[in-house]
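Deviations from the work plan: none for this task. Representative record:
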Amino acid sequence: MADTVKSVAVQDIRFPTSLESDGSDAMNKAPDYSCPYVTITTESGLQGFGISFTVGRGNDIVCKAIELLSHLVVGRDINAILKDFASFWRSLTSEDQIRWLGPEKGVMHMAVAGIANAVWDLWARKENKPLWKLLVDMEPDQLVSTIDFRYITDALTKEEALDILKSMQTGKAKREQELAASGFPAYTTSCAWLGYSDEKIERLCKEAMAEGFTRFKMKVGSDLEDDKRRAKILRQTMGPDNLLMVDANQKWEVPEAIDWMKQLAQYKITWIEEPTSPDDVLGHAAISKALQPLGIGVATGEQCQNRVMFKQFLASGAMQFCQIDSCRLGGVSENLAVILMAKKFGVPVCPHGGGVGLCEYIQHLSVFDYISVSGSLDNRMTEYTAHLHEHFVSPAEMKNGCYVLPQTPGYSIEMKSSSLASYVWPTGQVWQKLIQDGVYKLN
Amino acid sequence: MADTVKSVAVQDIRFPTSLESDGSDAMNKAPDYSCPYVTITTESGLQGFGISFTVGRGNDIVCKAIELLSHLVVGRDINAILKDFASFWRSLTSEDQIRWLGPEKGVMHMAVAGIANAVWDLWARKENKPLWKLLVDMEPDQLVSTIDFRYITDALTKEEALDILKSMQTGKAKREQELAASGFPAYTTSCAWLGYSDEKIERLCKEAMAEGFTRFKMKVGSDLEDDKRRAKILRQTMGPDNLLMVDANQKWEVPEAIDWMKQLAQYKITWIEEPTSPDDVLGHAAISKALQPLGIGVATGEQCQNRVMFKQFLASGAMQFCQIDSCRLGGVSENLAVILMAKKFGVPVCPHGGGVGLCEYIQHLSVFDYISVSGSLDNRMTEYTAHLHEHFVSPAEMKNGCYVLPQTPGYSIEMKSSSLASYVWPTGQVWQKLIQDGVYKLN
C-alpha cells in the first residue's frame, strides 16, 4: 500500500564548541560542530531523522541544498523508494540540472547524505530494528539492490558484491553474539586536540585508559618539535603496547608529509591520517610507499567525497586504513559500496567519528561490516570522541573502550526536542544569549 | 593608497535555454544556462564583474555561497588584495569553518570562482587592459605570486613555474602579433547536440564550415547506432581532413567507454571527452591507454574540481587534452596553475566553452597560454558555442573559425543591464512571463 512522503523538514542546528577548543587541529582552528537536521514524515505518520555534518559557518548552505532536493522526495511513495533504493538515490545525485553543482561531492553530496540517512532511519524504525540489524538481516540480493554501482564496476561489480555477502553468511549469528558480548573496539581522539595543554593530555589519556581505551589518536602538523613532545607524553603515558595514531588534517605537501613522519616514527605510529589533500590519490600512494618500511600506514577518508575516489584509493594502495564518513558520502548505501570494495582490496574500515552524531552513526556501519562483510577485527577500530552525545535520544554508549551494540530501532540520530530548541541557529536560546553577550555575531 | 571594497553583490541570472534543446547531451537533458553574477565595488568607484556557471536549478545555492564568502572581501583594501593575490585566494578557499564544505570543490569552489573572477576583471580594468594582456605583461615573479601552490609542489614548484615563464619571454611580442592577425583557433559544439535532427546537424555543419570552422564536436553516449549515424553524417559533411571530437558527458563505465569508442574509431575521432566520472583519474588513465593505439585521445576537465585533480590527470597520462574551466576551478589564478602544469607535462590546453559567458572568459586564458606559456598551437583549440553572446557588453567575436583577440579592458563578462533586468530569477520580465504562462514553475 502506498504511503506518500508528506514533508521533508530541515533545521540548522549548531553547537558553540569553538569556545572550548574541542576539535581543534592543524586546519580547523575553531569548529562549531553543526548539522542540518532532517525530518521526513509520511502520510501514515512514519518518521525518519537524518543529519549531515559541518563545522559551523555554511551549515545553512547545506540546509538550502536539502530544501532544493526535497521536491525529489515529497509526494513519492516511501514503499516504492525502499523497494528500489538505488534508483531513488540516483534520482537525488543525478537530477539533470542539480548534478552540475557536484557531481556527487561537497555541499550537494552532504545534502544527499542528510536525506538518505533520514530514509534509512525511517526504514529501520519501520522494521523495528537498529540500522545495523536491518542491514545484517537483509538478504544479499536486497542489500546489493540498495547500492548504485555507477562508476565502480571496473573495481566491484554487483555480482562480486553478492559473492562477498553470500560467502560471509556462515558465522553471522556467532559474530553478532560476540559483538553483543564485547562491543565493537573503539579508539579515542578526545585526549590530544591541538589546543590542549600537556597536563591535560596526560590526564585525559590516563582517564581514558581507566575507562578501558587502548588506542589513542593525536593531532599533529603545526609544529614538529611540539608534535614530538606531545607524542612522547602520550607514548609514555599509554605504554609501549597500546596503539598511537596521528592526524595531520591535510596540513602537508606530499614530500613534507614523508619527512615529518620519519621524525615521528620513533613513537611507534600505527597510522598517519590525512597527510595531505583528500583529493590526492597518487600523493597518498607515494606517501604510503615511503612510510611502509617504517611500519606506518596511511589513513584517510573523512573528506573523501564519494565512492569513485575511494575506489581509486583502495585499488592503488593509497590507503591502508579506510575511513568512511557517514555524512560526507551520500548516506548508508554509498558507505556499503565502500565497505564492500574495502573487503575486496583487503583494507580495514575504520570509520570517522566525532563532531556531532558521527559516533551515533558509524557504530552501525562498523557492526554491519564485521558481521556481514569483513568477519575480522584485525586493524579495525572505530573513532570515538566524548562530545555532544547528551543531545541524542539514544546516544552511543561505550564500555571498556568499545561501542555497546545499539538496540533502539533506527539509526540512533534522533535528537532531544529540548536540544533542537536550544541550539537551532540563530534563534535557539543558547545562540540568542551568545549573540546578545557579543560572543557570537550573525554572519 | 588604500581603496576599500565597499560591496560584493550577487544576482541569480538564468536563461530558459532548455526550451530550445540547445546544450542537450547524454547527462544534461535540459539545461537552463545560468550564472551567479557578481559585482565588486570599491570606495573609489572601481568595479569588477564576475560569474560562476550552472545549468539552472541550484544557481541560488551558489549565490548563497558567494554571500557567505563575501565577508572575507568587504572591508579589505583592494590594493593589498592585488599585491598578494595568492594569500587573498587562500583566505577564500581555506576559511577554517567554511573549508569543511569542500574543500575546494563543487558549490563552494564555484562561489570562489565567481568572486575571484570579479577581482581579476577589476584588476584588468584598473590597468586598462584586457585580461589576457594584463597577464601577458606581468613580470614572471608577479604572475607566479598570484598562484596558490598548495598541494601541487610535488608536480610543479614555484621555481619551476618561474623557469617556464622566463624561458618563454623570447618571442612573446611576435606571438601576440600573430594572434592579433589571425585570432586563436576554435572548434564548434553548436552543430551536434543530442536533441538535434540529422537534417539540422548537416545544415549547421555546412553553415559552420562556411564561417571558417574546421573542427567540430558531437555529443555521444545515449545510443551507439544513433552515434554512428550522426558521426557518419558529420564526417561526410566535413570531409576527411577536418577534426571530429566526441563528448560523452560522463555517461559510461570505464570498460564501456573503451568498447563504445572502438565502434566509433572508424570516423577518425580526435578525442573522446568525459568518457566517465570526472573524479576517476585511474579510470581515465586506463581508457587513455586502451584508446591510444586507435589514435583517440582522452579529453576532460570541465568538471574537474581543482588543481589537485588536474595534477593527477596530467602526471599519470590520464588526459591528452586538458580542458580547464574558468568557473569550476577557483578563477584565473588556479587556471594559471593548471596551464603551467600542462606545459610541464606536455599536454595541450583546450578550454571548456559554451554555457553562458564561458567563451567570453576562456579566450583570454587561451591567448595567455599561447603567448606566455605553451608557444604552440599544435592540438590547441578553444571551444565555441553560439549561444547567449548577445547579453554581454563586449561579447566574444569569431572570424574564420578563430576567436578575435579581445581589446576591451577587463575579463569580457560584464552583462548588459537590460539582460540582467530581464533574466534575473525569478523576478525578471522573461521569467515572470514564463511562470505566468505555466511554462516554468517556482521550484
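The longest strand of chain A covers residues 5-14.
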